[in-house]
Amino acid sequence: MSLNGALQVGRSAMQVSQTALQVAGDNMANAATPGFHRRTAHLSPNNSQQIAPGQFIGQGVKLLTIRREIDTAMQARFRDALSRENSSLMDQRFLSSIEAIQNELTDNDLSTLLSNFFNSFSELANNPQDNAVRGVTIQEGISLANRLSSMRTDYLRIQDEITRALGGAEEAANDLLSQIASLNQQITSTEAGAGEISSLRDHRDQMLNDLATYMDITVYEQPNGNVDVHVNSVPIVLGGDSRGVEVRKETVGGELKVSVRVKDDGEQLDVRDGKIGGLMRQKKETVDPAIQVIDDFAAQLIFQVNRLHSQGQGKQGFTSLTASNPVMDPADTLNSTAADLPFKIENGSFFIHVTHQDTGVRTTHEIKVDGNVDSLNDLVDKINNIVGVPNVTAGIGIGGPLTLDAAAGFEISFSDDTSGALAALGLNTFFTGSNASDINVNQLVQDNPSMLAAGTGHISGSNETANAIAELQDTPFSELGGKSLREFWQGSVTSLATRTSAANSAVDSSRVVREGLNAQIQAVSGVSLDEESINLLTFQRQFQAAARYINVIDEMLQTLISIA
User: Fold this and answer.
1) Domain identity same for 174 and 262
2) Residue 370 phi, psi (nearest 5)
3) Is pLDDT at 543 greater than 70 in this prediction?
4) Same domain, 51 and 87
């Protein structure tokens, strides 16, 4: 080998050492940078030179590549773990919120208020003539109604919170998708098919990890350096184009439906994990059903209590009465959608009693009704003409409620309703409303506790209605799947508690998985300051040795020149 060749050996060693020192320094500088993947300088000896038959000598070192250390399969698993963890956190957050609203096992939970309400009717049965006891019963009803109403309002607030969170997640996800598409363009134009621009790829990987916290994604890298991002099989980023995502809200049949779609063409996305997947699931599987449960519970509470109460009698009758449930279309059948009554009316009948207030003489009149056949107009006609209840005038008030007015000196009472018409129309009821959104205690009863129906048969001191209502808390109803009011609510509470416990466990387990994968990634891609310090020393010594080697060659060259 010539002296010039020897100098080139030293030169290559110095150049490669300088580069390797810079790589190690860059690693150390970014040891705490989120998303940074350590770089390694990969060296290879230059092609050997033949100096004699069968004799070869090295010609120094060359830099093969500066490689970004990354395990793409592990990165994909890590993104899946991020999606599952954030999805579990959404489950935990909203299940815990619903559980906190229910606030069971306290003195102000719904179960306690329900027991207090029905127990107050038991007390009323023991003292049916005592207005103070009647006042307590009315107050317990108000407390129960207020609790149901406030719980539903709180559920709606959580529903609104989910809607707002989905809007924020949509905006954040679209911002990340745009950044990923932009980085794709920068990477392909900068690399031009040769090598890797590690800083941009690190930035893009960090954006992909951030995107995985919002939705479960699959990433496909293309030969030109681009990545395509899919949700299941639907692409949302193709090269330098972001197709975007959209949280679409539609009202279908009076119910708000929320879906996630591709912004470009409206194709539906099946987002199962991440914040968006968790929010969608919690709306569909927790909050919406919770609202439905409390509405179903309140509706049956209203109807079943009212059905018994409407057939009973208080300490006095009515001289004038307006139903609390209006009929939207008096000409259509009572069970029609157009009539819009909250409860169905069966084929049956009820009795109207008209009592002379001075003499106590009472007449009884049966009113037959079929909700699938009769309209409110028909019912008014029956009372006024067909049956012709004397001293009572039926009419339709403003907005569609049935009105009954007794002649001077007479009062009205009811009994034996086999149709449920009195409760459905809202005549002589304890509660008003149709579900938890509008439940309240009838203002007539609140203003005059004597109107609270405790007895039947027009017998002073009777307690049959109070006893019957007290027994409702343990009476099974087909409308509640064969469960009583208490069982229906407790079943809902128990189911929620089980799901909340499972969500807490899922958060813990998903965190452990994510942390474990992160540790494995750091073992491959993370910067070890100790290791980089050793690399610095190694390449420093290599540089010093190469410099000393060149100095020796230079001395030899100077000696040869001086000889000449």
Assistant:
1) yes
2) -135, 115
3) yes
4) no
Q: In the structure encoding, which two tokens stand for residue 101, read together?
A: 């609203």
Q: Structure tokens of 464?
A: 């049959």
Collapsed DSSP state (helix, strand, coil) of residue 129: coil
Residues 143 and 118 in one domain: yes
Buried b (16+ CB within 10 A) or exposed e, 375-408: bbebbbebbeeeeebebbebebeeebbbbbbbee
Is 374 inside any structural domain? Answer: yes
Say yes or no: 491 and 537 in one domain. no
140-158 mean pLDDT: 96
In contact, 244 and 267? CB cutoff 8 Å: no
Q: Is residue 442 part of a domain?
A: no
Q: Does a structural domain hold residue 450?
A: no
Structure confidence at residue 55 (pLDDT) = 82
What confidence tens digit (pLDDT) does each residue in 345-371 have? 999 999 999 999 999 999 999 999 999
Give the span between the Cα atoms of 104 and 512, in whole angstroms.
Answer: 31
pLDDT of residue 553: 85
Give the amino acid at 331. Answer: A
pLDDT, mean of residues 392-412: 95
Q: Are residues 332 and 370 in the same domain?
A: yes
pLDDT for 1: 57
As a whole number of angstroms, the distance between CA 117 and CA 119 comes to: 5
Q: Answer yes or no: are the C-beta atoms of 476 and 482 closer than 8 Å.
A: yes
Same structural domain, 519 and 537: no
pLDDT at 120 over 60: yes
Q: How far is CA 548 from CA 14, 106, 398, 561, in A?
A: 10, 83, 107, 20
CB 533: neighbour CB atoms within 10 A?
Answer: 12
Q: What one-letter code names the amino acid at 262?
A: V
Q: What is the pLDDT of residues 23-79, one digit of tens each?
A: 899 889 988 888 898 989 888 888 887 777 878 788 888 888 888 888 889 999 999
Q: Within a domain: residue 44?
A: yes
User: In total, how many domains does the chain have?
Assistant: 3
Task: Give the separation between CA 189 and CA 200, rounded to whole angstroms.
Answer: 12
User: 145 is in which domain, residue-wise?
Assistant: 72-313+468-525
- pLDDT winner (highest mean) among 9-13, 148-152, 555-559: 148-152
E-state strands within 501-562: none
Q: Are residues 370 and 480 in the same domain?
A: no
Q: Residues 521, 548: one domain?
A: no
